[in-house]
Structure formats: structure tokens, C-alpha cells
Write a structure and sequence with these properties.
The complex is a heterodimer. Chain A has two domains: about 210 residues, Glutaconate Coenzyme A-transferase (3-Layer(aba) Sandwich); about 50 residues, no CATH class. Chain A has ten helices and 14 strands. In chain A, strand 8 and strand 9 form a beta hairpin. In chain A, helix 1 packs across helix 2. The longest helix of chain A is centred in the C-terminal third of the chain and has 13 residues. By secondary structure, chain B is an alpha/beta fold. Helices cover about 30% and strands about 20% of the residues of chain B. In chain B, the strands form three sheets. A ten-stranded mixed sheet of chain B has the order 4-3-2-1-5-10-11-12-13-14, with helices on both faces. In chain B, strand 11 and strand 12 form a beta hairpin. Classes of the chains: A alpha/beta, B alpha/beta. Chains A and B meet through helix 4, helix 5, helix 6, helix 7 and strand 12 of A and helix 4, helix 5, strand 9, helix 6 and helix 10 of B.
């Protein structure tokens, strides 16, 4: 497991046209990595995130993606993701193909991917409109009970990127707090990149903690504050104020582009971005 | 709505939240959506239902937040939970396994049979308004033993026909839901800023069962996009108790203060080890 700068990790492992899952459920969203992908100008990515959140709003608005798999595309507690809406409603800056699931389906799809299965199963009782628009949603009959079950195709991202609290000397990673489907997305991926708040001699991990062993990971990068404006439990809280302010920043194309230029593109790395935002000294 | 039918010292929003809270029995296990449902559940927990078990889809089980979370996964929920599990686990082991009594949802559109749309206004391919989408709602609506819905009532939200069916209520009504084999019974009550709608026992069409003080049936009908039936024993609900209002306002004030706090990150904590790559 090489320890790389984030810029090197993205440069070496994320290529145009790949499927890239950025997971972390409200908590531990890998913002720094998403910003680096924007800086390096990746194109035609298939983004995969249960809740696209501000990071996919930014990546879509900056033209990095032409496809999105997701299950809830809002600004939590605030309202719309305006860049995501602009892409879906008006094809700006380019048309976006969406593959829409429910949270539970995404969980099952990642679990199947992580388990080496082509699909996962869940209970399903009646068609909704998702059955008209979401691609094939085949039913299987359980050979034991005769129940009709929904088959959900596995998700195996080319690259999964996570943010976590700690990596140890060998590069094993500890994730603490709300995880969403981070572990499943990690184990489903062909390539796993992780940014962490800190490198420590020994992980602060009780026996059943969520630890991703170093040999699963393609690169670890140390990026303090790497989840901001999301959060890292035990390190810093969610910047709910920023989530509120994003609504006005992202509402119009011009102001959005200006903000991305002034903050993300003008900063060499995440530390500089946090200083520009006056989040870090 | 404040000017439309606030009766005295409370708003229609407050009345709606207090009314929704009263629908929750102490000790119930409740799967909570963010926003209005979360406010109602946390008010209930602070008033008549201290043992209400709140599960959020972020996998926080038994959360007792001291302020309302802005997102479904705020740290406050994890810090105060009995346990934190993964998202696949909360949906499979808790919800699909049948361990949830009440699912508490909101939506952009509802139809006369309690079916919900949180996906698009207009056509799916060329939407007039793209809404956030499913999240956890379809499975909550399917598996929770019963569902409560809280949403503001207007002809745009209470529609004769959904633009998109995201989450199933009673489908076409008259038993279609139970014939489809859903384990959960479906929406027991829809709490709005006018009163409470409940499904008719046979047709399963939502009808007006209770109104708030100062609300007229005509006003509710005008805010409904289908010819709204009215129960024979229409109730007028009492105004909220001052203690409930105080608790709700304290909760909102503490929430606003917490969410406005500036975040500061110390970048130096991790510097030292970073300079020794191996």
C-alpha cells in the first residue's frame, strides 16, 4: 500500500471514463479527493454515490461526469442540488445519464459486488414508477419459499474512494462512526483509494471496529480536513452552515463557476482550500 | 400559512408538528425521515413518548439528538445512538426484517390513496422539477407496520394523479395493497397544516377526519386536488398545549444556534507522521 500525495493517487489511479464510487453517508464524504479529480480535469466519469451531495454537484457542474448512479439527490436539510438539477433538467454543462435506485437497493448492490455475486435480492411487492425508468428490474422466485424477490445487479466500481479517520504505519485504515455503505463499496471496488485525517502508529480500534486492511488499498493519502464540509467524527463536525450557503452559490451557473475557480481550482491542495475558506488557519 | 389560519399564538407549522408528535405511542420503534418527521419525533420524545426509539437511515439506531439534525447523518445522531450500523444493515436487519413499527415520511406529492412522489414534477425524461428521489422511502413505506405522512396541503401537493409513484400507499385502494402482499399496513394518517386525513376503512381513500381550530372544511377542500371526502364524525383538534409549544420552540432555537456555529479545523494534527512515508 503506497502512501501517496492525493494528487499522485488521483493521477495514477483515476482515468477518464471510469466508474468512480465516492462513498461515506453524510459523514466522511471524500471532498478533497473529488476536488482533486476536478483540478485534474477528469471527464466522462460514471459517478456512483447514494447521496450525490455537494461533491457530485460540484463534479457534475464542472463537467467531470456523464453518468450518475444514485438514490437520493438533494442538499440534506437545505433543498436542491442545483448543479445536478441543471444537468438533468437542461443538460448543462453536458447531458447526464442517471441510474436511479433506492437506498436499500444501493446497499444490496454494493453488498453483492463486495461478495462476488452478480446480484443481490430483496423483498418487493408492487411496481413503482422506478420500474418503468430504472432499467431492468427482474423478479426471481425463491426456490425455498416461492416468494417473489427483486434482483438488484451488483455494483463493482472501477475505483472506490473513501475518507477515514486513521491509517497506521502499514496503511490499514480505521473508519469510525456512520459508515453508510462505505465498507461494502470498498470491498466491491477494483481499486480502493483512501484519504485519512491522520497517520498513527497503532489504530485506535477495538476488536470489532471497521478496519480495511492495508493490502486491499491501492493508495492512502493523508489529508486533514479531507471530508470538509462533511465531517469526520472525533475530528471536526459537519459544516451545516456551509451546506446552507451552498444553495445560493450553486443556484446560478456563473456564480458557481466563479466560486469553483476562486476556491477549488485556485488552490493547489485541500489545505490551501481550507485556508481560503477560513476553515483552517 | 401563518396569516391564513393561525389561531392566536401559534403557527400552522407548529400545530402540524405538535399534532404529528401526538400520533406516536411511547415505546414505538420509528424509522424517521429528515425535516418535519424528525421534528415531530423529537418533540414526541421530549413530551409524552420518552421511550420512542428513533432509527435514521444513516444507521443510527436509538438516537436521542439534543438538537434537530440538519442531515440524516449528523454526528449528533451517532453520538447519542444505542448503536450505529451500516446502511445495508439498517435496511435489511431492522426494516426488511420487520422490526419497525412506524415509518414517518414526507413527500412533494400525495394522491387520494396515500401514494407518494419524491422523484420528479413533470415527465421523468424532461422534468419540470427534479426532486431528490427515493432515498429510503419506498422500503419504509413497504415494511413499516404503519406509516405516518406529514406534509403541507395544497392543490399542487395533494394531487389527483402523481407525476411519479415513488413509494406505495394503498395503490388503487379497496384492498389492492394487502392483495399485493405488503407486510406493512400503509399510511394510517396524513398530518397537514389543516388537520388529519385518514384512509376510509373500505375504499382506502383519504378523507378529512380532523381539523385544527379556526380551519374550515371548505378551506381544506380548496387545498386538495381531488374531491375530498369528510368523515361523519369530523373532529376539531384542541390547540397545542403551551408546554408543547415551549418545548418545540426551545428545540428549534437550540437547533438554529448549533447549525450556525463556525467550523474550524486544525491542519497540524496529522503533519508529523505524514513526513515519513515508507
Amino acid at each position: 500500500m503506497p502512501l501517496l500525495t492525493l494528487a499522485d493517487a488521483i493521477e495514477q489511479h483515476v482515468r477518464d471514463g471510469q466508474s468512480v464510487a465516492l462513498e461515506g453517508f453524510t459523514h466522511l464524504i471524500p471532498f478533497a479527493a473529488g476536488h482533486e479529480i476536478i483540478r485534474q480535469g477528469r471527464r466522462r466519469l460514471h459517478l456512483i454515490r447514494m447521496t450525490p451531495d455537494l461533491i457530485c454537484d460540484q463534479m457534475i457542474g464542472m463537467g467531470c461526469a456523464d453518468r450518475l448512479t444514485f438514490s437520493w439527490g438533494g442538499n440534506p436539510g437545505v433543498g436542491s442540488l442545483h448543479r445536478l438539477r441543471d444537468a438533468i433538467e437542461r443538460g448543462w454543462p453536458q447531458p447526464l445519464t442517471i441510474i436511479e435506485r433506492t437506498h436499500a437497493e444501493m446497499g444490496v448492490a454494493y453488498q453483492a459486488g463486495a461478495s462476488g455475486l452478480p446480484c443481490g435480492l430483496m423483498r418487493h411487492y408492487a411496481d413503482t414508477s422506478l420500474d418503468r425508468v430504472g432499467g431492468p428490474r427482474p423478479r426471481l422466485t425463491c426456490p425455498f419459499s416461492g416468494d417473489s424477490l427483486l434482483a438488484v445487479a451488483a455494483i463493482n466500481p472501477d475505483v472506490t474512494i473513501l475518507h477515514a479517520q486513521q491509517a497506521d504505519e502499514q496503511g490499514s485504515v480505521l473508519i469510525r462512526g456512520i459508515t453508510g455503505a462505505a465498507r461494502e463499496a470498498a470491498l466491491a471496488a477494483r481499486c480502493l483509494l483512501v484519504t485519512v485525517e491522520a497517520r498513527v502508529e497503532r489504530l485506535d480500534a477495538p476488536l470489532n471496529a471497521i478496519v480495511l486492511p492495508h493490502w486491499l488499498i491501492s493508495a492512502v493519502s493523508i489529508v486533514p480536513g479531507g471530508a470538509h464540509p462533511s465531517y469526520a467524527a472525533g475530528c471536526y463536525p459537519r459544516d451545516n452552515r456551509f451546506y446552507g450557503e451552498w444553495d445560493a452559490i450553486a443556484r446560478e451557473r456563473g456564480r458557481f463557476q466563479q466560486w469553483m475557480q476562486q476556491y477549488v481550482l485556485a488552490s493547489r491542495d485541500h489545505a490551501e482550500l481550507l485556508r481560503r475558506l477560513r476553515i483552517a488557519a | 400559512m401563518k396569516t391564513a389560519h393561525a389561531a392566536g399564538a401559534y403557527t400552522a407549522d407548529e400545530m402540524m408538528t405538535v399534532t404529528a408528535a401526538r400520533q406516536l405511542a411511547d415505546g414505538a420503534v420509528c424509522f424517521v425521515g429528515i425535516g418535519l418527521p424528525s421534528a415531530a419525533c423529537n418533540l414526541a420524545r421530549r413530551t409524552h413518548a420518552p421511550e420512542l426509539v428513533l432509527i435514521y437511515e444513516s444507521g443510527t439506531v436509538g438516537a436521542r439528538p439534543r438538537v434537530l439534525p440538519l442531515s440524516i447523518g449528523d454526528g449528533e445522531l451517532a453520538d447519542t445512538a444505542d448503536c450505529v450500523v451500516s446502511l445495508p444493515e439498517v435496511f435489511a436487519h431492522y426494516l426488511q426484517r420487520g422490526r419497525v413499527d412506524v415509518g414517518f415520511l414526507s413527500a412533494a406529492q400525495i394522491d387520494r390513496h396515500g401514494n407518494l412522489n419524491t422523484t420528479v414534477i413533470g415527465s421523468y425524461a424532461r422534468p419540470a422539477v427534479r426532486l431528490p428521489g427515493s432515498g429510503g422511502a419506498p422500503e419504509i413505506a413497504a415494511h413499516a407496520r404503519e406509516v405516518l405522512v406529514i406534509m403541507k396541503q395544497s392543490p399542487r401537493s395533494f394531487v389527483p394523479r402523481l407525476d411519479f409513484l415513488t413509494s406505495c400507499g394503498y395503490l388503487g385502494g379497496a384492498g389492492e395493497r394487502s392483495r399485493a402482499g405488503f407486510p406493512g399496513r400503509g399510511p394510517r394518517a396524513v398530518i397537514t397544516d389543516f388537520g388529519i386525513l385518514r384512509p376510509h376503512p373500505e375504499t382506502e381513500e383519504l378523507q378529512l377526519c380532523a381539523i385544527y381550530p379556526g380551519v374550515t372544511v371548505d378551506a381544506v377542500r380548496a387545498a386538495t386536488g381531488w374531491p375530498l371526502g369528510v368523515a361523519h364524525d369530523l373532529q376539531v383538534l384542541p390547540a397545542p398545549q403551551p408546554a408543547d409549544l415551549d418545548t418545540l420552540r426551545e428545540l428549534h432555537a437550540a437547533t438554529r444556534q448549533t447549525h450556525a456555529a463556525a467550523v474550524r479545523i486544525n491542519l497540524r494534527t496529522a503533519d508529523a507522521p505524514a513526513s515519513h512515508p515508507h
